Write the structure tokens for this entry.
Amino acid sequence: MKKLLATVALVPLAGMAAAQCSPDYTGVTLNVSTQNGPAIASALAAAADVWEEQTCGTVNVIEFPFGELYPKFLTAMSQQTGDFDVIGFVPAWLPDFAPFMSTMPAGLQEGADWDDIHPTYRERLMIWDGEVKSATMDGDMHMLNLRADLLDDPEEQAAFEAAYGYPLAAPVTWAQYRDQAEFFTRPDEGLYGTAEAYRRGGQQFWYFFSHAASYTNHPDNPGAMFFDPETMDAQINNPGWLRALEEYKAFLDFNPPGALNNGSGDVRPLYAGGTVAMNVDWADSGVLGSTEGSIDGHVRTAMLPGSTEIWNHVSGEWDSFDEVVHSPFLAFGGWQLGVPADSRNQDAAWSFVETVISPEVSGLAIVTANSGVNPYRFSHYDNLDAWSSIFSEDEAASYLGAQRASLDAPNVALDLRLPGFFSYTEVLEIELSKALAGQVEPQEALDAIAAEWDRLTDEFGRDTQLAAYRASVGLPPLE
């Protein structure tokens, strides 16, 4: 009798537990993997706490060095080991990963939360071959970070205008960027004009791409920045790319000493600590400058400079424009989450992804120090109050306004996404480093890259690569 009563007594308790787990994933353990933290990994761990409380499931966050992610993920998925339920990766790898990944459930591709994701991410970077294969959890683009304490100083304003003939303000072209970098380069004061990443392996090629977008992303020839979208011939050695490389190299003169050894992680404290007047970087520099640097209250952000001249590869001439054309570059594109097709817990895995990218959880991540998560939802840009713990009102308006303007720019430039991405960028970094170090002339380096890119394209299959490239830039298949 006592045994029967004990059994009956457990029934309501079990029912109560089930009611508290919605959806109920009791007994399910998800293996979620991404790069070593704190960036991104800490955001996934924080989201895991929320998901575990809601669903009674368990999340095991597995971290690897960034350089190990691509081979580990691709090997596991292609061999169907089932090692990972959710992977955190970068958009450039989606062409190689997509055949081994599940498609986002239809239920997640509708409703207010879905519409809240900026369409540049939702309709461009999350889709491959017509299917939603990933979910953006972080918005990334290069921006220009400036200092209000210098820009708004009356003495600096007067001296700059006297020297260059126009008012001191956020540079709109790369020529103005050069003027301002030169003006603020004052080694005797411990001040330098700018900081960019130049080190091989330090994300240098994304900085080079940010310069090149202004001269090669022609608004009348969509998709022609990296390759000819009709033939798949490499375009990286044309005059637009040459101008970009020559400028990128010349700006070394306005960086602090040792700039060839600086990666993206090095340019942030240079800006935040007040060593430079500005830098090019992702959104991390602005947060660092306002929370851990010496320029708190003076952080300002702007779209990358543009150009009034863009190379037209079709006509083989420079085209001039009456107004500056901005081609803000979505460098990297932001971390994404995907569910491998060999996951044994796909429903639970997509439920976890839904939690990570939800407005509530992601809205907390974007204002959490070192989370690595930057805005990508309309609600992230619109809710200025959420940023009060990090920025002043002026800082927040500048920071969010620059990102929103970059995404909304008609000529926004997307990052390279192509099968064999690592092979293409490896030769790029080798030759680019030679040119920056003065070992070869810029045109020689670009010619070598173009030749190797064409060889790789033929090796991978020109028709296959052309179809993939057109898809990545939003162009229909060739008939």
The longest helix spans residues 2-20. Residues 1-18 have pLDDT under 50 and may be disordered.
